[in-house]
TrEMBL record:
MF GO annotations: FMN binding; metal ion binding; phosphopantothenate--cysteine ligase activity; phosphopantothenoylcysteine decarboxylase activity
Region (Phosphopantothenate--cysteine ligase): 15-221
Domain DNA/pantothenate metabolism flavoprotein C-terminal: 10-218
Pathway recorded for this protein: Cofactor biosynthesis; coenzyme A biosynthesis; CoA from (R)-pantothenate: step 3/5; Cofactor biosynthesis; coenzyme A biosynthesis; CoA from (R)-pantothenate: step 2/5
Protein's name according to its UniProt entry: Coenzyme A biosynthesis bifunctional protein CoaBC
Keyword line: Decarboxylase, Flavoprotein, FMN, Ligase, Lyase, Magnesium, Metal-binding, Multifunctional enzyme
Organism name: Novosphingobium fuchskuhlense
Binding, CTP: 102, 112, 130-133, 149, 163, 167
UniProt keyword Transmembrane present: no
Amino acid sequence: KLGGGPTGALAGKHMLVTAGPTHEPIDPVRYIANRSSGKQGFAIAAAAARMGARVTLVAGPVTLPTPPGVTRVDVESAREMAAAVAAALPADVAVMVAAVADWRVATEAGQKLKKDGSGAVPPLHLTENPDILARLGASPERPRLLVGFAAETENVVTHAKAKLARKGADWIVANDVSGDVMGGHLNAVHIVRAEGVESLPEMPKDAVAAALVERIADALS
Ligand code: CTP
Ligand code: CA
């Protein structure tokens, strides 16, 4: 469409999306990470932009191109992601797809850790990262619709229901990551709401994104 403002079911809405892993520094050359590729979150941002939303995509370290029409903010660590999310508010809807590292090293070493020749290993004392979704759920700036993701390897729906309550989210999109979902092209998700669970068949991540964004547009209309 040339000329005029954005059209589409999400025109005039601001969607905030987090995607990808976070990297938690150990020292200047090492970090803790996870297998998230960012594909599902980027697909959601792309689908929302196609439906006319203004989209802010807060992305951890991934190797994906920025979807057309999306404003991207790159971050490394969970704490940087939390700050970028706060700075992007207000939003009508937030979809928290990022695989945020649960723990970071309590004190990042200023210099590269070295072997001391004795075979002794450095102790890595971990501390918990801020829960970005739970903070948003309890915030005065809480988006009208707050959607979390849940990566589970067992009891997928049961765990997702617990997260719905714990995080103050409206929906949790649960996916079983026991197979090769992380990094892969396909995903099978269960959309868990207080009212019930909708299970979608396994499909490409782009199709999961389109289905989810359609439901988001319905919920916001
Ligand atoms: N999340 C977040 N900040 C964190 C951890 C998780 O915003 N520090 C968000 C994720 O982006 C996702 C949801 O919370 O939308 C659930 O993440 P998940 O890792 O499945 O849940 P946790 O609460 O971390 O529980 P656990 O990893 O122990 O299953
Ligand atoms: Ca986690």
